[in-house]
C-alpha cells in the first residue's frame, strides 16, 4: 500500500480507502446488500492490504453501515482513520436533515454511538444545504472539533465557489478549516477539473474520490448488450450522468490497455486516477471479496505515460467559459519566456 498526507494536514492516509456504503440492507437493494459476515471478510482484507482509511455515512442503510463498521474495527480503532458524513435525511422530521447546528450536533452524537467511538477522525458534510446559513454550519463544525468529538473536517459535493467562501470564513474567524473534499471523479466524470481541482490545489485541500468506477460502469462487467439487464446494479442505481455510448468507446480503450498489462478494466481505471498528483485517496467499495482483491491490485499497476496521455485526451472535458477564454488569451511571448 502507498500512503500520503491528506491535504496539508498531518493525517497520513492510504492511497486506497475502503468505502462501506454497501454494508447493511435497505431501500436500495442493489447497493445495501452486504451482511456483517461478508463485511468482516472485506474489512479484514482491507486491513491486511494496509488500508488505514475507512469511509461511511449516517444515511447509508439507515445507519447500519456505521454500526457494522464500528463493530468490525473493534480494538483496531486507534490504528485507523474513520470518515463519516452528515447532511442527508435520517428521519421523517423536518430537522432530521441538512447542515443546521441542531442537526449536525445530533447527527454527530448518533454517529459516535453507532461507530462505538469517542471521536470521528474526519467529519464530512455530505452535501450543500441552501436552507441553512453557511456561517451556522461552519461554526457548528468548529464547535464539534473544539469539543474533541471530531479531529478534522471535510466537505463533499460542494461547488468550488462555496468551498472557497467557507475556507475564507473559517480562516478569518480562526475556526477549524476544511482539509479535504470528497468528490465524484472518474474517467467518464471529470467535471471537477474545471474549477474544483484548481481551487483545491491552490489551497492545499486534499481530494478523495468517490465512485471512481462510475457506479461500476468502468469495471468492465457492463456491455452494450447487458446494460439494461434488470438484475445489474446500474439498472437499480444509475444516477451518475454520462453518455453511455461514449463511455463504451472509452471502455474499449481501457480493455485494450488492461490486456496489455494482464490487468482488468477496473484496475486500469483506478490506476489512472491514482496517477493524478492532485488525488490523495480513492474510495473503493465492494460487495464481494473478489471485487476488493481486484481493486486493491490497482495500487501496483503503473500505466505508461503514453497510456495515461491517451486516456486523458480521450476523456478530456470540454472547457467551460471563462476557462477556455483564459487559455485562449494567454500571452504566448510570456509563456515562451518562462518556459526557457
Strand content: 15-25%
User: What is the CA–CA distance across the termini?
Assistant: 38 Å
* Annotated CATH architecture: Alpha-Beta Barrel
Please count the beta strands (DSSP E, at least 2 residues each): 12
Mean pLDDT: 94
Q: Domains counted in the coordinates: how many?
A: 1
In the CATH scheme, what's the topology name?
A: TIM Barrel
Q: State the helical fraction.
A: 40-55%
CATH class equals Alpha Beta
Largest sheet: 8 strands, parallel, barrel
Q: Give the structural class.
A: alpha/beta
Radius of gyration computed on alpha carbons? 20 Å
Output the strand order for the largest sheet: 3-6-7-8-9-10-11-12
CATH superfamily: NADP-dependent oxidoreductase domain
Question: Helix and strand succession?
Answer: EEEEEHEHEHEHEHEHEHHHEHHHH
Give the uncertain stretches in residue-range form. Answer: none
Task: Looking at this protein, list some descriptive labels.
340 residues, alpha/beta, eight-stranded parallel barrel, two-stranded antiparallel sheet, 12 strands
